[in-house]
TrEMBL record:
Keywords: Carboxypeptidase, Disulfide bond, Hydrolase, Metal-binding, Metalloprotease, Protease, Secreted, Signal, Virulence, Zinc, Zymogen. One of its GO terms (cellular component) is extracellular space. Belongs to the peptidase M14 family. Involved in the digestion of the blood meal. Extracellular metalloprotease that contributes to pathogenicity. It is found in: Secreted. GO terms for biological process: proteolysis. The active site is at 413 (proton donor/acceptor). The keyword Ribosomal protein does not apply. The keyword Magnesium does not apply. This is Peptidase M14 domain-containing protein. Pfam families: Peptidase_M14, Propep_M14. Gene3D superfamilies: Metallocarboxypeptidase-like, Zn peptidases. Its cofactor is Zn(2+).
């Protein structure tokens, strides 16, 4: 009893210190999973969220089957001030809901404790490059530690890696990407794969997965002939933390911060832009909508798209770099959380698919199959807009596909819970660090599969070319269309259906 009391006193003292130091706390906040059934319930939920304004944060939305309003699932963070109204309305309307996270502040503290480091205290662990992933990758790392690790790698492996500062962030922090290549000095640039993570600050699992992939490629190069073969043909650019200011802020001040940290002219209290609504493709497209909050003009919104396209300096730096290397970047991958999803354009619309939809689907299905073989987990796969039933303009995956013609553009929503899950383990952004390695192992395998297809020119295309090699180009197109419509489409649809 005495020890429980002293623990409460300590927690109370921590609370007071956090209040005084401006750290954002989430006492009394809950995360609800709401499953409206039918259009009436769905629009009631939309109204609830609109009325709730800044007391509600949408963590995840999926409309499932789409237009008929069935199968929708929303996960929302609700402040204590509005919680009673939300709960009584849901109950009155008979809308099914679960409390996913009962005590948000406690879950935040639990994640930090499981990570072995309180936010005040820098980890005393040394960053050892040779310990393998069992130790390094069982923790989330701060921005400074990630940089330290990257720079150490580039120093240790000068013939295989190059650390590139894409530019300085709004708060003047370097944004480091690493190039992994066996021909760093080669002027004839080989095909390359770009991977970025940490666009949204609170999605800590994503930078961790990027670090794991870097580690595996570098250490695999000297010990695994497959990796050696892979790296003899393709270069990798990996940017583990894109939104560096937001990421730092999520460690020091507000664990659930999502946006950048730039101020918004005209808004005294609300800073930051959602960098994944800020890209110059269907920027704030008003026709892009689902439940109606997929991009926003309100600087206080978590999905604020920014004053104009590329208003964020981080977006401009990455765009400049990719523009300069677009000719040889053949695949683009952006890592987000959460959802256990592997998706491709379009994101801006629920109604259209991109011109190379079947190639994208073919490679995605191959990735998903190989990912499933790792731990048995199945990533839901499809066009972002069509599959999720809502659309957003200004996203990087659409922009890279359209504006830089990177044909293989994919967005992962990493899992928000362990594979074998009880409800209490669905911690979403607050996933305990023991999930880093299993998730990373899956994504690493998916990336290898993607690389093999990119190198091979995609097996599907090769087969098609072989079939029609002696025919005219007009006939080629017809045969290609036949293969698309009659052979590949039913296969893809059948696989989708079996996974629903
Ligand atoms: Zn995200």
């Amino acid at each position: 009893m005495a020890s429980k009391r002293s623990l409460l006193i300590i927690l109370g003292v921590i609370g007071v210190i956090e209040c005084l130091s401006g750290i954002v706390r989430y006492d009394g906040y809950k995360v609800l999973r709401i499953q409206p059934s039918g259009l009436d319930q769905q629009s009631a939920v939309v109204n609830l969220i609109r009325d709730g304004q800044h007391e509600i944060d949408v963590w995840s939305e999926m409309s499932g089957e789409g237009l008929d309003g069935t199968g929708s699932t929303l996960e929302i963070q609700v402040s204590p001030s509005i919680l009673p109204t939300i709960l009584s309305t849901l109950e009155k309307m008979g809308i099914h809901y679960d409390v996913l996270i009962d005590d948000l502040q406690k879950s935040i503290e639990e994640q930090l404790q499981a990570n072995g480091m309180h936010r005040y205290k820098r980890s005393a662990d040394s960053i050892n490059l040779t310990t393998g992933y069992s130790t390094f990758h069982d923790k989330y790392w701060r921005y400074e530690e990630i940089n330290e690790w990257l720079l150490k790698i580039c120093k240790t492996y000068p013939n295989l890696t190059e650390c590139i500062n894409l530019g300085m962030s709004y708060e003047n922090r370097p944004i480091y990407a690493i190039k992994i290549s066996t021909s760093l000095d080669d002027a004839t640039k080989r095909q390359a794969i770009w991977i970025d993570a940490g666009m949204h600050a609170r999605e800590w699992i994503a930078p961790s997965v990027a670090l794991f992939i870097i580690d595996q490629l570098i250490h695999g190069y000297s010990s695994n002939s497959n990796i050696e073969e892979l790296l003899s043909q393709v270069d990798f650019y990996i940017l583990p933390v894109f939104n560096v200011d937001g990421y730092v802020y999520s460690w020091t001040t507000d664990r659930l911060w999502r946006k950048t940290r730039s101020p918004n002219p005209g808004s005294k209290n609300c800073s930051g832009t959602d960098p994944n609504r800020n890209w110059d493709f269907h920027f704030y497209d008003e026709t892009a909508s689902g439940f109606g909050w997929t991009a926003a003009t309100d600087p206080c919104a978590n999905i604020y798209q920014g004053a104009e396209p590329h208003s964020e300096i981080e977006v401009r730096h990455m765009d400049d770099f990719i523009q300069a290397h677009a000719k040889h970047i053949k695949a683009y991958v952006t890592l987000h959380s959460y959802g256990t999803l592997l998706m491709w354009p379009w994101c801006f619309t629920t109604k259209q698919v991109p011109p190379t939809n079947y190639d994208l689907a073919y490679v995605a299905l191959a990735m998903r199959g190989d990912i499933k073989n790792v731990h048995g987990r199945i990533y839901r796969t499809g066009n972002i807009g069509k599959m999720l039933g809502f659309a957003s303009g200004g996203t990087s995956v659409d922009y890279m596909y359209n504006n830089h013609s990177i044909k293989y553009s994919y967005a992962f929503e990493l899992p928000g819970g362990p594979f074998v899950m009880g409800q209490s383990q669905l911690k979403r952004f607050l996933l305990p660090p023991e999930n880093i390695v299993p998730i990373s192992e899956e994504i690493y395998v998916g990336i290898k599969t993607l690389a093999e297809h990119v190198i091979g020119g995609v097996k599907y295309n090769l087969t098609m070319t072989a079939t029609v090699a002696t025919t005219s180009s007009a006939t080629n197109e017809k045969i290609g269309l036949f293969i698309h419509v009659c052979l590949i489409l039913p296969l893809v649809l059948a696989v989708f259906r079996s996974l629903r």
